[in-house]
Amino acid sequence: MQKSKARQDVAGSDNSQLAGNRPKQDRPSRLRGLTGKLLVMSVVFVLTAEVLIFGPSIGTMRLNWLQDHINKAAAAAVVIDDLQPRELPKQVQSDALLATDTKAIALTKDGTTRLLAMGTMPQAVDGQYDLTNVNSITAMKDAFETLLFGGNRLISVSSPVGDTQMQVEVVMSDAPLHRVLLAYADRIALVSLVISAVAGLLLFVILNRILIKPIRRLADNIQEFADNPEDPARVIATDPGRDELAFVRRHLASMQAQLQKTLRQQKNLADLGLAVSKINHDMRNILASAQLMSDRLVDVDDPLVKSFAPKLVRTIDRAVSYTSEVLSYGQASEAEPRRRRFPLASLVQDMKDMLVLEDGISFIDQVPQDIEIDADSDQLFRVIHNLCRNAAQALSGYITEEEGGMGLITLSAHRLGNAVAIIVDDNGPGMARKARENLFTAFRGSARSGGTGLGLAIAREIVLAHGGTIALVEKPGSGTQFRIEIPDRPVTLEIVRSQTSPEGGQNRSVKKPS
Questions:
Q1: Is 41 within 8 Å of 67 (Cβ atoms)?
Q2: Among 218, 245, 359, 437, which is least packed, fewest CB within 10 Å?
Q3: Residue 423: beta bridge partners?
Q4: What is the percent of the chain where pLDDT is above 70?
């Protein structure tokens, strides 16, 4: 009774939670949730794209700037080369260098290099660059080198003069180029930030509308459903769309509906368990009185009474034991099997005496007398009796054209190595498709109208506790056939050692555990 009351208290606490007593969690704000993450990621991705574009663009910009200065110097060099005398006055050279913003100008023509103009002769140059054939990687490397380390260096730059064979070379300071590249980098950074902000904002607005808001609605529905899962109005409405969110909504609606159905079944099961506990409490008292009276029948000298009194005593003892286990166990799972080896035929005989058959239904016992099984006799009795009773109920009112219109229930068994196979067969109408799909499922696997399906669910649990299997076997004709296989317990090492002789030899045979 204490365990039944405890289970009732647990059920009451579960119902209070289902009624909406859970603490409601605050959902994250927009900036801390997916919305803020999406905005940050959008800006980062656009900035990354701008950075990837920045390298080639600044390399091209540096080449164009140098090429413009080379072109100016080339024009001056051609003019100076055509003038006579060959040596220009210093003032003219200074004016040419000032106009081209260079330190020295040299022209290579017909394989001869001539220094056309030169100011103060530098001691050495810090870098030499040939603009004849420059690839993108080299252009970007030189541009970043000038941007990071330039500003006070002298560089030598050479390039062909148009389509001619002449080549002009100048020595110049990279300070103007450094200032131009810095200004260009500042403009690119400002434009990149503006583009990132605009693109991120547009992407945020679009994705927030088509993705974030539906996800937030899904999250709100899940939380509302969790507060009161028994309310049918909390099931999310399905979406006829074809995108992934509509797919999620449909599956979420199906899952919520299935969960509500399961909760109703669990509530019915809890109510049923409480009712069974109350009934078993009163039934145990009634059976105890019947047990006392049946014990007195054993002492009666009437031969008829002596023939059925032992069976009546065993039946009442089994009922009393079962009701006591239900009250003491107080939970949905079966007790651990108390296994022993016993003749299966004796158990089948007891089951036949308790099986109620209508006229027109016959029971055929094909269990050999010499087959022993390693199992819990009371639990196995319940399994076989349940299957045979289901067969009798299926055959009730059903007349088959085979076997002369006689309903038949056949129980057979045979040993397969270290296992025993038990087969319960009937020639009834068979099981409906819905019952087959939900076989061994409580409240759903019943083969008849009004049934609960608990019998097959309990039978499966008992067989699995024995390490065996139970299955519905497909048969060509009409009817239903169940096959049970119960394996023997393995011989443990302790048993082998206990049967080993003190001299170190072993007995010729090892007894099975009992």
A1: no
A2: 359
A3: 412, 483
A4: 72
Q: Which residues contact 252 (CB under 8 A, 6 or more apart)?
A: 218, 221, 222, 236
What 3-state DSSP class applies to 33?
A: coil
> In one letter, which amino acid is 392?
A
d(CA 188, CA 67): 21
What amino acid is encoded at 437 in this protein?
E
Q: How far apart are CA 449 and CA 29, in angstroms?
A: 53
pLDDT value at 159 more than 60: yes
Residue 371 has pLDDT above 90, yes or no: yes
Sign of the CA dihedral running 98, 104, 109, 112: positive
Residue 23 pLDDT grade (very low, low, confident, very high; cuts 50, 70, 90): very low
User: What tokens appear for 359 in the block?
Assistant: 């006229």
DSSP letters, 355-381, are: ----TTEEEEEE--TT-EEEE-HHHHH
Contact between 66 and 129 under an 8 Å Cβ cutoff? The reply is yes
- Are 218 and 224 contacting, i.e. CB atoms less than 8 angstroms apart? no
Using DSSP's 3-state secondary structure scheme, residue 506 falls into strand
Tens digits of per-residue pLDDT, 229-263? 888 888 888 777 777 778 888 888 888 888 888 88
d(C-alpha 230, C-alpha 15), whole Å? 10
Looking up tokens 């899952």 gives: 255
User: Which residue, chain included where needed, has tokens 């094909």?
Assistant: 366
Instruction: Return mean pLDDT, the chain.
Output: 76
Is the sign of the CA dihedral 195, 197, 198, 203 positive or negative?
positive
User: Which of 418, 424, 414 lies closest to 487 in space, CA to CA?
Assistant: 418
Q: Determine contact, residues 492/499, Cβ cutoff 8 Å.
A: no
**Nearest CA among 420, 439, 434 for reference residue 372:** 420
Element (H, E) at 469: strand 469-473
- Show the tokens assigned to 214: 């539906």
The β-bridge partners of 472 are 482
**Is the distance from CB of 97 to CB of 103 less than 8 angstroms?**
yes
Residue positions counted in the chain: 514
Total-model pTM: 0.43
Query: The tokens of 191 are what?
Result: 């434009």
Extract the runs of DSSP E, i.e. beta strands, from 163-290.
167-173
Domain annotation for the chain: domains and CATH numbers: 34-195 (no CATH), 344-498 (3.30.565.10)
Q: What is the pLDDT of residues 177-199, one digit of tens each?
A: 889 889 988 888 888 788 877 87
State the CB neighbour count (10 A cutoff) for residue 218.
Answer: 15
The Cα–Cα gap between 383 and 169 comes to 104
Taking the chain, what is the end-to-end CA distance rounded to the nearest angstrom?
A: 33
